[in-house]
Structures are given as C-alpha cells and as structure tokens.
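Please fill in the sequence for the structure shown.

STRUCTURE ENCODING:
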C-alpha cells in the first residue's frame, strides 16, 4: 500500500497582492500586455509601497513577467520572484499601444466591448472572463502549495479577478474596487 501525497490545501494562506506603480504612457493609451516603462515617479511610488509592506516576510513571491511588476518586486527586495504568465494584465490584442480615441475611429468592435467588456474580448485579445479564468487557475494551483504567506506583484485587472475569486467584492461591481498604482490587496486562501 502506498502512502497518499499530503494535501497542502490550507484555509490560512495569507496572500498579499501588490499592483505595479504608475506607467509612463500617454493618457488614454491601451497597454495591457505591452511591456511599457514605469513613470518617472517610480522611486517615490515604490518607496511608499515598500513602506506599506513593512517588515512582512513571505514564503514565496510571484510576479507577472512584465517589467513594471518585476521592477517593483525587485525594489521591494524580491529580485528573483517566480514569474508566471497567468499574472499578466488583460491582453488587449490589436488595441495594444494605441490611444482609445484612435481605436474608436478605426475599430467599431470597441463600442460593443464598452457595452459588454465583461464578456467580449478586445479584437484579437482577451475578455474579463478569460483573464478571470487564468487568474483563478493560478490561485487554484497556489492553494495546493504549502505556503502560509505569499506575495504577488501584478496588475490592476489581475488584482480585480483575484478579489472576486477571494470573495472580497462581487463581480457585478468589481471594477469599482480597482487597487491604485502601488497599492496592496490582502486576502486569505
């Protein structure tokens, strides 16, 4: 008879999610998966985030592979987080690195997306439901790990999906709960 593998699912894993600092893109720019630079105020914003994290010690640190998340992780003392593509922001497809005003003039699909962004994807991109699915998959897998305290450096859309997953707020008004740049969201898994 073989001994079954231990099941590490725990109800007391503390997850601390940190949104990247503000970015250096023109106002009204659509940039989801694009690897855009951080704003010139990075040092000030990152110092405040680091201060807000305090002396927390984490069993494991994850990050989106996009530079804006990894740079904040490194500033906060986590130079080698585990990178996971499921922690990327929403893929905005053909709309990436374009101004919303230009997209509106050139792609009529954006008007439908504005009316139903929870279910419709950007042209050749993702919908909220797609992002939620990959974030939920990541968190389901995380629950299987033996960690008690985990930090995750990611993006606003990812934090929204994680907040819905964790029951912090309902899906029907989740975008009202967007964590500010450099902000922190905590929950138990």
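FILLED IN BY: designer on duty
SEQUENCE:
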């Amino acid at each position: 008879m073989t001994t079954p593998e231990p099941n590490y699912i725990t109800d007391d894993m503390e997850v601390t999610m940190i949104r990247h600092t503000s970015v250096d893109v023109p106002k009204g720019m659509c940039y989801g998966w694009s690897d855009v630079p951080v704003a010139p105020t990075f040092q000030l914003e990152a110092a405040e985030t680091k201060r807000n994290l305090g002396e927390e010690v984490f069993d494991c640190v994850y990050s989106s592979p996009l530079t804006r998340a990894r740079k904040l992780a490194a500033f906060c003392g986590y130079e080698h987080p585990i990178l996971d593509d499921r922690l990327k922001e929403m893929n905005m497809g053909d709309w990436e690195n374009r101004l919303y005003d230009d997209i509106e003039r050139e792609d009529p699909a954006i008007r439908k997306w504005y009316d139903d962004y929870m279910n419709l994807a950007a042209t050749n991109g993702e919908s909220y439901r797609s992002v939620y699915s990959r974030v939920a998959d990541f968190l389901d897998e995380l629950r299987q790990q033996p960690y008690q305290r985990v930090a995750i450096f990611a993006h606003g859309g990812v934090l929204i999906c994680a907040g819905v997953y964790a029951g912090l707020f309902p899906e029907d008004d989740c975008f009202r709960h967007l964590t500010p740049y450099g902000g922190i969201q905590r929950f138990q898994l």
